[in-house]
Amino acid sequence: MLHHLKDAKLLRLTFFNVTSELHSELYFGPRNERFGTVRSLAAGAETYNRYKELVSVGNLPFVRASSSDRVVKSALNWTYGFSAASSLRFNPVLSVILDENANDTLHNSCGAIGSSDNQTDTWIAIYTPSIVQRLNNAAPGANLSSNDVFNLMTLCAFESVATESISDWCRLFDEDEWKAFEYEMDLDKYYGTGYGQPLGPVEGIGYINELIARLTSSPVNDTTQTNSTLDRSPVTFPLDRTIYADFSHDNQLIAIYTAMGLFKQPRALDPTNSDVDSTNRTWITSQLVPFSARMVIEKIQCGIGSSRQDEDEDYLRILVNDAVQSLDFCAGVSKEGICRVSEFVESQSYATNGGNGDWQKCFEVREYTAIMKYIVIHPRIG
């Protein structure tokens, strides 16, 4: 039974794929490690309780993680949570750890990608001066700067997670100041690996092509950052599982959203004005990649159409942090956010076409730099 779907014609959920950023970027000590551990354990247990009808001793979740230590630990904790929720009957293991120094669809691979520094620096220069003045007036001699303000606001989150209670640092700032800080986070992700970064979406296309392979039970067709050796093997990239769980980073999850077409905005975020389209804006980082962010793709069979053929066809829906996505880019999508798998695949032409040339741009600067180094090291004689 598909959790929370109020469609009487629902037949069965056949497939579950989760891409998760279930680690904490605040991972720097035992207290924060405990926070991430608890969230990962809970996520594993939740997955079992929600999708246990898809599990059998011969068909356990297939789990992958990028090789960052905190990501690996989160994946392991997820498996422990899943196992515990099943009373140790079903015990998935972390099967593949993707080396972040090699082809890895769960980590950034585009060498020429830019950054969001220009946009975030512009906004910091706009919203922090009044805060700097207020705090310096209250604490003579502190000589706080705009960067100090940013760090203090970030410390609010760090300490709140570490102590599991709201930090006193949070009380230094009012609601409007927190909204301005949040907008800085929105700009950071939007211009980091989101729609505002020309090479941002290309970071996500390898994973989407892997997703298509899983949805269609067909070999991976990709020429970008997939590891072809691993993806060709049924041991390291099986196509016959009912639950897949991948563990990654928040920036990579943003790139996957963007490459797929989720959270597209009517216009680019303005680094000088947070009020532009603020009522219609859906690009809100705290909703896209909060702690323990996850994207879930459910493959289902349900009777949306009137014919028997419709009932036998595969459909999907996508949830981001438990919110069902509208999938406006998918032709024929229902009001419940359900679209045919075939239409979804058709909508992902950016990924299936290898990024329309963007992937090659990822290495143009790197190759130019390598040539320049060669010229310097081996100067022409004569």
UniProtKB/TrEMBL annotation:
PANTHER family: 3-PHYTASE B (PTHR20963:SF24), MULTIPLE INOSITOL POLYPHOSPHATE PHOSPHATASE-RELATED (PTHR20963). The lineage of its organism: Eukaryota, Fungi, Dikarya, Basidiomycota, Agaricomycotina. Keywords: Hydrolase. This is Phytase. Coiled coil: none annotated. Pfam families: His_Phos_2. GO terms for molecular function: acid phosphatase activity. It comes from the Eukaryota. The keyword Hydrolase applies. It comes from Lentinula edodes (Shiitake mushroom). InterPro entries: Acid_Pase_AS (IPR033379), His_Pase_clade-2 (IPR000560), His_PPase_superfam (IPR029033).
